[in-house]
Specification:
alpha/beta, 40% helix, two-stranded parallel ribbon, Rossmann fold, binds uridine-5'-diphosphate-4-deoxy-4-fluoro-alpha-D-galactose, 12 strands
Length: 344
Amino acid sequence: MTGGAGYIGSHSAKALRRTGHRVVIFDNLSAGHREAALGAPFIEGEVRDVDAVRRAIRESGAEAVMHFAAWLDVAASVRDPVGYYRHNVVGALATLEAMAAEACRQFVFSSSCAVYGEPLELPLGETHPTRPVSAYGQTKLAVEQALPHFERAYGIRSVSLRYFNAAGADPDGELGEDHTPEIHAVPRALGAAQGGPPFEIFGEDYPTPDGTCLRDYVHVADLADAHVRALHHLQGGAASTAYNVGTERPSSVRDVLAAVERVTGRAVPTRDAPRRPGDPAALYASAARIREELGWVPARPALETIVADAWRWHAAHPRGFETPRHRAGLRDGGPDMAAGPGGR
Ligand code: UFG
């Protein structure tokens, strides 16, 4: 599993191990956390290094690869397409090259609803045209579009999971979201409730009921479950495909803030801010395909539950995973991370 020490990767690794799979995590720790591996076999390495990925596949005897390793900041991708193409496209192609060379033929890919771009209709189904607005979305689509060629030539079958807004934390409290910098709405709102900087509302003049953007927040544990199901589907011999993974429930930024205030019992100070370039007014999924074909139904769909699980993690880990790297000061005084890296 590449990027298995990151946010969605670590939750998925835990879910896979719980269902009896042997998981080897391959991560360069640029954004992931060693502790998030929860003791799973761990290889520190770079996905663009084909030989390193080949070695990892060979030595672990991997039958499948889940590929999470990527940068994830949509706005940063517009400023730095080189970095995003290098990490997201070159990284995925190198991983696929290594898989082809080692005859490893099942691939689960972390894609995104960003492949659709500005929605022409809602909810978004998988047949909606793919016209990404950001370089980030384009990199995810580029990998999806390469996959049929890798299947034809090398027999690699794949499932692409197009995540909507991943949020929440491990219901057991062992794992959570720890990005530097943190760009996402739920952890930022929790940070504001904890006395951090006020939450900036990026635009309140959208054509939505309360003027703020609508998104489909999906619990990271439910995303993890989608990965387990996608793998089982491939192991059962299924054909390659792509699935949306979302709850089909639109929530506004103000809904998020209200949920955070209810869950924490604290006020969330806010500040009005301009629209963030590239933010569509509304994005929410039709998840009919994954429900019908994989039997995936989110177990924790309510925004309140998502926020409550995230809050439990944030309250218990106000400084995140606190790795030795962080304690050495790199977290605050290290290289400027504003243009990435991310890491699922
Ligand atoms: N928002 C704020 N203030 C903040 C942070 C976010 O108002 O401080 C708003 C955003 O404008 C947006 C909503 O909250 O309307 C959600 O923003 P996020 O940054 O949490 O998530 P995005 O919808 O922008 O991005 C997510 C994932 C991406 C993925 C994208 C697909 O983070 O990886 O969905 O659109 F590609």
